[in-house]
Amino acid sequence: MAQQDIFISYSRKDTPIADRICGAFDKAGITYFIDRQGIGGGMEFPKVLAEAILSCKIFLYLGSENSYKSRFTKKPKEQILPYIIDGSSLPAELEFVFSCINIRNIKEHPIETTLVQDVLEMLGKQAEFQHTQTSKNRTWLFTGITAGVISIG
Question: Which residues of 93-121 are buried (b: 16+ CB within 10 A; e: fewer)?
Fold first, then answer.
């Protein structure tokens, strides 16, 4: 399996937002694994998921009421980015897991700007931005990606 930049962990009930994030990553040149595109017929999905998680550089957790109820919610990577997509509060057990991590949310940290920038920084890549005005005095238009180097231990 080819190494991807991001493994996207989400609830199927949150597919529309996951799709928006995938679209933003596509535009930014960020590679990702999402189960709908990475598991073929007849494949053993637990094995495929485990391999994808272990081979990715960042584990992106899309937090929502839906995902908190999922039995597949775990913290399998050192590089993890919790991103709350529905304004919900983290359950106590996830608050503990993410206690030392800066948690982002879709309301204050838009997908196309903050989330994509966070991921690029975690990957050691740098986006070239062109400033345009739309909200909160800043919106960024991606015009290209410059690759960098990152060491994940």
Answer: ebeebbeeeebbbbeebbbbbbbbbbbbe
In the DSSP assignment, the letter for residue 4 is -
C-beta of residue 33 within 8 angstroms of C-beta of residue 4: yes
Q: How far apart are CA 143 and CA 126, in angstroms?
A: 11
Tokens representing 85 are 């997509």
What would the DSSP string read from start to end of 51-118? HHHHH-SEEEEEE-HHHHT-TT-----SSEEEEESSSPPPPHHHHHHTTTS--EETTTS-IIIIIHHH
d(CA 45, CA 35): 9
- The encoded tokens of residue 46 equal 């637990």
Confidence of residue 136 (pLDDT cuts 50, 70, 90): very low
Q: What is the pLDDT of residues 82-128, one digit of tens each?
A: 889 998 988 877 776 777 788 889 999 999 988 999 889 888 887 65
- pTM: predicted TM-score of the whole model, two decimal places: 0.59
